Amino acid sequence: MHPGGWKVRIAAGALMLAGVACPRCEPDSKREPATPPAAARPAPVDANAAKLERGRYLVEAVLACGACHSERDTTRYGGPVQGAPLAGACQGPEWGFPGRVCAPNITSDAEHGIGRWTDEELLRALREGKGRDGRTLFPSMPYLVWRSLSDEDAHAVVAHLRQVPAVARATPRTEIPEAVYADIQELAQPLEGPVPAPDASAQGQYLATIGQCALCHGGMGPDAQPFEGGVPVPTPYGPETVPGLLPHGDVLRGLGEDAFVARFTAWKDVAPAPSREGQVNKLVMPWGFFARMHEDDLRAVYRHLQSVPAPSGTAAHPGE
Ligand code: HEC
Ligand code: HEC
């Protein structure tokens, strides 16, 4: 129906599919230190309370795993999660996907979930795009972005997944055309070395990267500028357009830091109004997850957005 939609949500991947360099992949690869590949072997994930708490926070708020891996009631504004969290869900062409794309059950269930997966298998799916069976994962699983996830954070995610109550529920397999599968092969790449945690001063940028703010709000195509937005994403109720998040653009101009934080925290009390055709039902951006982000983190993201330079050739984007 809207065959371009999935590419929007994985703009970085789409750019690579088109055979052009991915501008927003640049800062990430620069951050990776030149360490020999042997050092990439992750140490086994051990769990302590702080690590489990960090993992829960990442899974339930910043990384929003449940936006895709949980069933959601899209007939209602914001698409609240329904049923058991992380027990698997599929999306099809009504969301612009080239087939049926299924984010599997990742609860601790041994048969249908990740109960028997090794830490290494989970880390590989998360950051390198390889499924347990060795297949290349469809890149709406945000592994291209999560190459930037620090070792510490990736381990915390794995530790938390072990604690997610088991749900014995099978997920159908992803079914995409062979030509699409062939196109995505190059996207799954091993990490070249350890990924260090960001400096305190880079927290906002790091969160805007791993929270996919930069990806979704980044525009599309080889000339896309960071945070220029403007991309329509298909939903069953019609497209939702991603706004730009530049300091002087329509959203952020005049929006103070407190008001910015309030837009997120307000989602803790959103009433479940019905979704309507042609209305922005807020089904694309995972607001319900981001509402749980720590205020400090939202503030860091805001300050990072304020520091993003105006794009070159601003005149070509009159809205910004
Ligand atoms: C934007 C949607 C989306 C988000 C967010 C997301 N995933 Fe996924 N994930 C998918 C899809 C779709 C697949 C299956 C891809 C395929 O079948 O090719 C997948 C696959 C996986 C797999 C591999 C399963 C297998 O069968 O090999 C694991 C593990 C996984 N996700 C874990 C996570 C975790 C942990 C998070 C949060 C930190 C997360 N995902 C967030 C969409 C998502
Ligand atoms: C999956 C894509 C996606 C992701 C990820 C995403 N956004 Fe959005 N965002 C959208 C879309 C679509 C809209 C417009 C519809 C809406 O308001 O939900 C939007 C709207 C917004 C708005 C405007 C809200 C308003 O009231 O006008 C802000 C601010 C925003 N996003 C910030 C962020 C931040 C910060 C992050 C990362 C923590 C983020 N977005 C991640 C897709 C996304």
TrEMBL record:
Gene3D superfamilies: Cytochrome c-like domain
GO molecular function: electron transfer activity; heme binding; metal ion binding
Keywords of this entry: Heme, Iron, Metal-binding
Domain spans labelled Cytochrome c: 50-165, 199-309
Highest taxon listed in the record's lineage: Bacteria
Name of this protein: Putative diheme cytochrome c-553
Pfam families to which the protein is assigned, alphabetical: Cytochrom_C
